[in-house]
Design goal:
The protein is mainly β and about 110 residues long. It contains 1 helix and 8 strands.
């Protein structure tokens, strides 16, 4: 079960420059989250193309908040809208305290 928790968007400057602003950069998906009664997962979702970003799924069984970061991701070229989706595997609850994209310039 995946539920929308928050939307992620680049700054206005990055939006006007499109994907070119991130060319050559490493992009990571990071969440701070916890789970109760099982495991909770988060993933980066490409709203524009209607697909989850490969390699972005993160999960935890910790009842206390933990920070999780994906490996470097490959984002689709062009201007895209992304969101963080959150779900649970056992019907428990997942809490997301923060969700963000980390962009490291080369």
């Amino acid at each position: 079960l995946w539920l929308l928790k928050c939307a992620l968007a680049p700054s206005l400057e990055e939006m006007s420059n499109g994907y070119a602003a991130w060319t050559g950069s490493r992009v990571y998906f990071e969440v701070v989250m916890s789970a109760s009664d099982g495991s909770a997962s988060a993933r980066l979702f490409n709203v524009t193309d209607g697909v989850a970003v490969d390699g972005s799924e993160l999960s935890t069984v910790s009842a206390t908040a933990v920070r999780l970061r994906s490996p470097a991701l490959t984002l689709s070229s062009g201007a895209k809208e992304y969101r963080a989706d959150v779900g649970t595997s056992t019907g428990g609850a997942g809490i997301v305290y923060a969700a963000r994209l980390i962009v490291e310039s080369s």
